[in-house]
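Sample intake sheet
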Amino acid sequence: LVGDRFDVPLRAFVGIGRSENPNMPLDAWVLSKWTDEEEQKIPDLVSKAADEVMQVVGDWWFGLIRSANL
């Protein structure tokens, strides 16, 4: 996440990693269809990503409130 001021929005970046096949071009990997196994993992991955974002936002907000109260 990027941003440490109240007026700067936080941004989260999520990546897909690299193909296990070193000969596969990156654009082909990124644009390829998901396998059934990968597709089944999506809800859990989205949930975990949301949990991480909420943790960071909570930590950031707590820090902001704490610094305002000093």
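Comment: The CA atoms of residues 44 and 50 lie 10 Å apart. The chain has a mean pLDDT of 80.
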